[in-house]
């Protein structure tokens, strides 16, 4: 008997297309009922129930009961990280070519800006993270983390975010997350979550109700341009 984690069990659960679709539908960190997940996966309610039971048993999902309804969510950010990493592998074709051009409007919206378990991802997330590095507000370290500099602490404070009050997890305060559409890193971890929450609170970003896509408001574009030099053209052209 090998004394190793049962990697194959988790891999088997994720490998099924129906279960993978359900997991990706939950990758923004919000809970959803079984009916919504069935619709996202294109299966019947009975089929969805069977798959959800397996995901619960496998530790990939958690469930919360409210009255007569049951709401499912990912078991934690570690599951979202696995999904993002797998998606980044899948975005490379057999010949090694990165799939840069989305095939639908929804895909374009997700590539432009999306929520990755409550932190900002997509082209916008990468552009904002790069701007933070260019201004030396955060510095990438060798252990896949970001370190917040003294100037960064002051800048985040001016944005209404007290970095010292953000509690790190065992994986750190600010983590580098490889973006599956951009193949570059965006800001994740507790600081990434707190930062996106603050941008939404300021009215710069707007999360969509039934999608992982994130919209930038006119106020948001003005603020991102003034504070970080990030504008829509920069994100779209990848400059």
TrEMBL record:
Pfam families: HTH_20. SUPFAM superfamilies: Winged helix' DNA-binding domain (SSF46785). This is DNA-binding transcriptional ArsR family regulator. It comes from the Bacteria. The keyword DNA-binding applies. SMART domains: HTH_ARSR (SM00418). Keywords: DNA-binding. InterPro entries: ArsR-like_HTH, HTH_ArsR_DNA-bd_dom, HTH_Metal-responsive_Reg, WH-like_DNA-bd_sf, WH_DNA-bd_sf. One of its GO terms (molecular function) is DNA binding. Residues 1-94 form the HTH arsR-type domain. It comes from Caballeronia udeis. Signal peptide: none annotated.
């Amino acid at each position: 008997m090998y004394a190793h984690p049962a990697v194959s069990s988790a891999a088997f659960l994720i490998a099924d297309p129906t279960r993978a679709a359900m997991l990706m539908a939950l990758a923004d960190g919000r809970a959803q009922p079984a009916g919504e997940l069935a619709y996202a996966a294109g299966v019947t309610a009975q089929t969805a129930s069977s798959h959800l039971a397996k995901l619960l048993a496998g530790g990939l999902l958690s469930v919360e009961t409210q009255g007569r309804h049951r709401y499912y969510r990912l078991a934690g950010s570690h599951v979202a990280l696995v999904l993002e990493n797998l998606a980044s592998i899948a975005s490379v074709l057999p010949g090694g070519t990165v799939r840069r051009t989305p095939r639908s409007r929804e895909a374009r919206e997700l590539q432009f800006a999306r929520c990755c378990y409550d932190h900002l991802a997509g082209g916008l997330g990468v552009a904002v993270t790069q701007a933070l590095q260019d201004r030396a507000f955060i510095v990438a370290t060798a252990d896949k983390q970001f370190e917040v500099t003294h100037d960064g602490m002051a800048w985040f404070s001016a944005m209404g975010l007290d970095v010292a009050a953000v509690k790190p997890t065992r994986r750190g305060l600010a983590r580098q997350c490889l973006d599956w559409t951009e193949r570059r890193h965006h800001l994740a971890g507790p600081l990434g979550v707190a930062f996106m929450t603050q941008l939404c609170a300021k009215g710069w970003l707007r999360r969509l109700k039934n999608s992982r896509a994130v919209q930038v408001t006119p106020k948001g574009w003005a603020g991102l341009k003034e504070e970080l030099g990030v504008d829509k053209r920069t994100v779209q052209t990848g400059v």
